[in-house]
Design brief:
The chain has eight helices and seven strands. It is elongated and about 55 Å long. The chain is α/β, with parallel strands linked by helices. The longest helix is centred in the first third of the chain and has 23 residues. The chain has one domain: Rossmann fold (3-Layer(aba) Sandwich). Helix content is about 40%, strand content about 20%. It starts with 16 loop residues before the first helix and ends with a strand. It has a seven-stranded mixed β-sheet, sandwiched between helices.
């Protein structure tokens, strides 16, 4: 994850980072691989850039697709979680300040990245310009429509409904304070259309939210990673957080999850 200007609450050096990255992969990889494999049709010999690569799971999938004649650049502020692979060039890289790899990529993929960057609109347009003719840019970010939807989908008591709302609001307040934009994904396509691109599609995905599923486990992990903030900046107590964590493992519980919107842009040939 890139975040060069704000405090990193989800630092990839944190002890919980490997679990967080693994859970994100479990939640999103099937959808991502479906888009890259079927709609984009990544193929043999492609040159790909996986920006904000995290644990490198997408980069590894791409390396298998591009074959011996292909190449994958996997970049992140902290790229230590990417395992070695003969077709993956893992680089430590700040998208907002470091020189970019040479252009003419067949694919550029960035997941849960641009929503964190202050100059996301300019970077999206610049990424699209880094494609070869006919290449594909694939941008995925969270979108939260929680303001208009009920947060909890399964019946729970009033107390738990209240503390889950406090938890949700606290996490999103922190996100806003650190520059995250949960609306960005809903207008990424408009930004790229304004930059002159015409071949644009958008895919909407919402992962299951049952207790014990990866999305619930990720929320549970975040309740620990963000505990100092939640205790100091919300009305939650340690006892409340313990109830939240227990509930997030209950298979009878179901919560609303964020959507991901994936914007796919094909460069003109």
């Amino acid at each position: 994850m890139y975040n060069s200007t704000h405090e990193q609450r989800f630092d990839n050096d944190a002890p919980a980072a490997p679990e967080q990255l693994s859970l994100l992969s479990q939640i999103l990889n099937r959808e991502t691989f479906g888009i890259l494999g079927t709609e984009v049709a990544v193929g043999h010999g492609w040159r790909c850039w996986d920006v904000g690569t995290g644990d490198g799971s997408v980069a590894r999938w791409l390396a298998a697709r591009v074959g011996t004649n292909g190449h994958v650049v996997a970049s992140d502020l902290k790229s230590q979680h990417v395992p070695g692979h003969p077709r993956i060039e893992a680089i430590q890289h700040d998208l907002t300040s470091d020189p970019w790899p040479e252009p003419e990529f067949d694919l550029i993929h960035a997941r849960l990245l641009l929503m964190h960057l202050a100059d996301r609109e300019a970077i999206a347009a610049r990424l699209a310009a880094h494609l070869r003719p006919g290449g594909a840019l694939v941008l995925t970010d969270w979108f939260c429509g929680c303001a208009t939807e009920s947060l909890i989908k399964s019946p729970i008591d009033e107390y738990r409904a209240h503390i889950f709302q406090e938890f949700h609001d606290g996490v999103h307040k922190l996100g806003a304070e650190t520059g995250m934009d949960f609306d960005w994904a809903s207008h990424t396509a408009e930004v790229l259309a304004a930059a002159g691109h015409r071949n644009i599609t958008v895919r909407d995905y919402q992962a299951p939210g049952q207790g014990g599923e990866p999305t619930a486990k990720l929320a549970r992990l975040h309740s620990g990673m963000l505990e100092p903030y939640l205790l100091s900046r919300t009305g939650l107590t340690e006892a409340d957080l313990a109830v939240i964590r227990e509930t997030l493992l209950d298979p009878e519980f179901e919560m609303l999850t964020n959507h991901t919107y994936t914007t796919i842009v094909r460069a003109a040939k």
